[in-house]
Task: structure prediction
Amino acid sequence: MATMVEKTGKTVEEAINEALEELGVTSEEVIIEVIDEGVPGGVLGIGRRPARVRVSIDEEVLHPSPASDEAPAYYGDDEYTDEPESAEEAETTAYVAAILSGIGIHGKISSFREGDTLHIDISGHDVGAAIGHHGETLDAIQYLATLVANKQSENRLRVSVDIGGYRRRRESTLVSMAERAAEKVVRSGRAFKMDPMNPAERRIVHTALQDYPGVTTFSEGEEPERRIVITPSDV
Result:
C-alpha cells in the first residue's frame, strides 16, 4: 500500500479527500501538507489553479512507539503494575485499562496529576479502534473516565485521556486548518464554513482564531452537523 500521495482538487478539502480515499485511511492517520491552496479563477475559469496537497501515512498512529519503561501500567494480557498517587487516579486508570482490554487493545498506560487535571496517556499497537472517527470513541472513554474519577473526588477533577499522541496531533491539524481558512476569508472578504466538528474541536478553533486579525467566528447548526463559520470581522 502506498504511504504517500500528492493530489489536486478544486479546493484543499477536495484534494485531501481524494488522497484519503486512495490511501484507504482517515484524516487521523495521516500528515497533511498543503503545497498550493490554488486559485478559483474568474469568468470561465480563466486563471484557475488547482489546490495541491501531499498526504502521508503517520506511522506513529498506525504503529505507535512503545512507551518508556518508567513506571508503566499494563492493560490487556499484562498485569496492572502502576502505583497511582490517589484513589481517584487508581480507580480511573484501572477503569480505562478495563475498557481497552475489553475491546482487545493491549499496551501501556501512564498517568499523572497536574493541578486539578488527571492526565492518562495510552500507547500500544492497533489503537485506532479506541480513537474512532475524529476522536469520538476517545471522547466517550474520556467522558466515562471523568465520571469515575469524580465519584470519589471532593473537588471537581478534570480527566484528559490521550492515545498515541492523537489529541496533540489533531489540535495541531485543526489550528493549521483554521489559520488557512481565516487567511482565505481575509483575502476574499467572504465567509467560510468549516466541516462539522464536535464541541471540543470547535473550542480549539475558536480559541486559535480569537485574536486573528480581520475575522470573527461563530457556530451554527445542530449536533452532530454543527460547524464553525469564519467571517470577516467588519461584516
Observations:
- Confidence is low (pLDDT under 50) at residues 66-74, 77-81.
- The chain has three domains: 1-57, 73-164, 165-235.
